[in-house]
C-alpha cells in the first residue's frame, strides 16, 4: 500500500485553487534558502532534518528544490514533502499519520496523557481544563502548558481557546493554521535536542 500522503486528491477544473497557506509558504521558503545553502557547502539543513526525523539522507549528486522540500518537511517532523503539504494544508484524513510536528525532544521528560483512541483523549481533555489535545502520528496527546512552552508555542495564545483546546477537532481551521505558524516559528531548540 502506498504511503497515504503520496499525492494530493485530484482536483476538478471547476474547483478553485487552495488559498495560500502560511505554513506551506514558510516551508517552501526554508527549502529555497536551504537549497542555496547546500549549493554553497552549508549542510546545516541536512543535519537538522537528520536530528528531527532520525532518518539518514543520501547526498544527491546535484541538489534540487525537491530534495530541499523533503529536508524542510523532515526538519519539522514529517516523513516527506507530500505528507507535510497534506497535513499542513488541512487535507489529511483523521486516520492518516500527522507526523511529529506537535512534539519535541524537550517534551520527553514531561508527563502527558497519550491515547490511541480519540474519544478517550477527548474525555481526558474534558477533565483537564488547562490542557490541550494535539495529534501525534496516528495517536493523540493531551498536554499541559509546560509541553506547549517546550514546543516554543505560547500557552496564552487566544487561538487555543478559539479551537476549544482541541487541535484535532480544529484541524484545517484558521485557529489551527495560526497555531501551526506559531509552531513553525519556534526557536531551533524547540525542534532538536540541545544535548543538555
For the biggest β-sheet, the strand order reads 1-3-2
Q: Major sheet: size, sense and barrel closure?
A: 3 strands, antiparallel
Which regions contain 5 or more consecutive residues with pLDDT less than 50? 1-17
Please state the overall shape, judged from the principal axes of the Cα atoms: globular
Ends apart, CA distance between termini: 40 Å
Beta-strand share of residues? 5-15%
**What is the overall pLDDT average?**
85
Tally of DSSP helical segments: 8
Structural class determined from secondary elements: mainly alpha
Order of SSEs: HHHHEHEEHHH
* Counted beta strands: 3
**Tally of domains:** 2
Radius of gyration: 17 Å
Helix amount: 40-55%
Write a structural description.
This protein is mostly helical. The chain has two domains: 22-92, no CATH class; 93-196, no CATH class. 40% of the residues lie in helices and 7% in strands. The chain has helices at 22-39, 44-53, 65-74, 81-88, 118-127, 145-151, 158-162, 174-184; strands at 113-115, 132-136, 139-143. A hairpin with a 2-residue loop joins strand 2 (132-136) and strand 3 (139-143). Helix 1 (22-39) crosses helix 3, helix 2 (44-53) crosses helix 3 and helix 3 packs across helix 4. The protein is globular and about 55 Å long.
SSE layout:
Blueprint: H1 22-39, H2 44-53, H3 65-74, H4 81-88, E1 113-115, H5 118-127, E2 132-136, E3 139-143, H6 145-151, H7 158-162, H8 174-184
Amino acid at each position: 500500500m502506498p504511503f497515504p500522503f503520496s499525492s494530493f486528491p485530484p482536483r476538478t477544473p471547476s474547483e478553485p485553487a487552495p488559498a495560500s497557506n502560511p505554513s506551506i509558504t514558510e516551508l517552501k521558503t526554508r527549502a529555497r534558502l536551504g537549497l542555496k545553502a547546500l549549493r554553497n557547502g552549508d549542510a546545516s539543513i541536512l543535519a537538522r532534518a537528520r536530528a528531527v526525523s532520525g532518518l539518514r539522507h543520501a547526498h544527491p549528486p546535484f541538489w534540487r528544490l525537491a530534495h530541499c522540500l523533503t529536508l524542510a518537511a523532515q526538519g519539522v517532523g514529517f516523513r516527506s514533502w507530500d505528507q507535510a503539504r497534506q497535513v499542513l494544508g488541512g487535507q489529511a484524513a483523521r486516520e492518516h499519520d500527522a507526523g511529529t510536528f506537535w512534539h519535541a525532544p524537550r517534551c520527553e521528560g514531561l508527563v502527558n496523557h497519550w491515547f490511541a483512541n480519540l474519544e478517550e483523549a477527548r474525555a481526558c481533555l474534558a477533565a483537564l481544563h488547562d490542557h490541550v489535545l494535539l495529534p501525534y502520528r496516528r495517536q493523540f496527546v493531551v498536554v499541559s502548558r509546560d509541553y506547549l512552552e517546550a514546543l516554543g508555542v505560547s500557552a496564552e495564545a487566544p487561538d487555543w481557546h478559539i479551537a476549544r483546546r482541541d487541535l484535532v477537532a480544529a484541524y484545517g481551521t484558521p485557529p489551527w493554521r495560526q497555531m501551526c505558524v506559531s509552531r513553525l516559528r519556534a526557536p531551533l531548540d524547540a525542534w532538536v535536542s540541545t544535548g543538555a
